[in-house]
């Protein structure tokens, strides 16, 4: 199988490595089947999409909707490079899965609206599939209603033209969409487990993903969550698009 490509942007090694491990486990992949590029560390190398089965963009402390003059030079470079790659991905309808930061990037690239209207604090939420989601080749593999982990300061407020809404949530109406047949984005994290979200919360404890006074409530909600279905979507992505 050609490897998948994970484009990561977390500068904290613990969070970056935990994210990589999460995608490996959720997708049932070995390290030689998931090539990681850490864009925060160095410019994006020349990517030949034909060398890969698909592209994954994970979460990030970056927010795509932040005003350009508040973004670091690294974030601006990363987003220019990813926009260039999305030119190819969208034009070719190449297999793509953007999670959290990835949905913000894809929405912005396709001229949808991303802002802070539907931000959600870190923790578990209920996700519900739409009619289109229930018949989708990836999302149709999971229960119609399931728990997932989120934690985001921005979200898609208006879908890009032509995008198909696949999943929604009570406090964030756009939890997943598809463009074309093969380009997907999720607001929730398909790779996150209970252990994984606890690592993220420890690493990003000062980044405003939850109110300090709500710490005990957040921890209790995570401990009580039964998050299994999101990994099924990642596994379905690998099984559908993994190519010899």
What can you see in these coordinates?
The protein is α/β, with parallel strands linked by helices. The chain has a single domain (4-241), classed as Class I glutamine amidotransferase (GATase) domain (Rossmann fold), CATH 3.40.50. It is built from 7 helices and 11 strands. The strands form 2 sheets. The protein has a 9-stranded mixed beta sheet with strand order 2-1-3-4-11-10-9-6-7, with helices on both faces. Strand 1 (4-8), helix 1 and strand 2 form a beta-alpha-beta unit. The relative contact order is 0.18.
Low-confidence stretches: none
Overall structural domain count: 1
Gyration radius over CA? 16 Å
Question: At the fourth CATH level, what is the homologous superfamily?
Answer: Class I glutamine amidotransferase (GATase) domain
- Morphology: globular
Helix content: 25-40%
Bin the strand percentage.
15-25%
Find the CATH topology.
Rossmann fold
Order of helices and strands: EHEEHEHEEHEEEEEHHH
The CATH architecture comes to 3-Layer(aba) Sandwich
Question: Mean pLDDT score, rounded?
Answer: 96
End-to-end Cα distance, whole Å, is 4 Å
The strand line-up of the biggest sheet is 2-1-3-4-11-10-9-6-7
In short:
The chain is α/β, with parallel strands linked by helices. The chain has helices at 13-27, 73-92, 101-109, 131-134, 194-203, 215-224, 229-241; strands at residues 4-8, 34-38, 55-57, 96-99, 113-115, 120-129, 145-152, 155-158, 164-169, 176-179, 183-186. The protein has one domain (4-241): Rossmann fold (3-Layer(aba) Sandwich), CATH 3.40.50.
């Amino acid at each position: 199988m050609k490897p998948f490509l994970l484009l990561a942007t977390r500068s904290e090694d613990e969070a970056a490595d935990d994210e990589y491990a999460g995608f490996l486990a959720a997708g049932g992949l070995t390290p030689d089947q998931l090539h990681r590029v850490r864009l925060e560390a160095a410019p994006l190398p020349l990517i030949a999409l034909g060398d890969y089965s698909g592209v994954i963009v994970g979460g990030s402390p970056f927010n795509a909707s932040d005003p350009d003059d508040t973004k670091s030079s690294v974030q601006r470079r990363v987003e220019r490079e990813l926009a260039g790659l999305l030119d190819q991905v969208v034009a070719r309808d190449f297999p793509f899965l953007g999670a959290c930061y990835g949905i913000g990037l894809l929405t912005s690239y396709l001229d949808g609206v991303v802002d802070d209207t539907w931000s959600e604090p870190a923790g578990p939420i209920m996700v519900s599939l739409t009619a289109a989601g229930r018949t989708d080749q990836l999302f149709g593999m999971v229960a119609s209603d399931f728990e997932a982990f989120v934690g985001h300061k921005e979200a898609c407020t208006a879908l890009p033209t032509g995008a198909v809404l696949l999943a929604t949530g009570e406090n964030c109406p756009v939890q997943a969409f598809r463009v074309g047949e093969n380009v997907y984005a999720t607001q929730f994290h398909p790779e996150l487990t209970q252990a994984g979200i606890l690592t993220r919360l420890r690493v990003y404890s000062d980044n405003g993903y939850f109110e300090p006074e709500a710490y005990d409530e957040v921890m209790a909600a995570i401990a009580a969550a039964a998050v299994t279905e999101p990994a099924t979507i990642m596994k379905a992505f690998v099984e559908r698009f993994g190519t010899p």
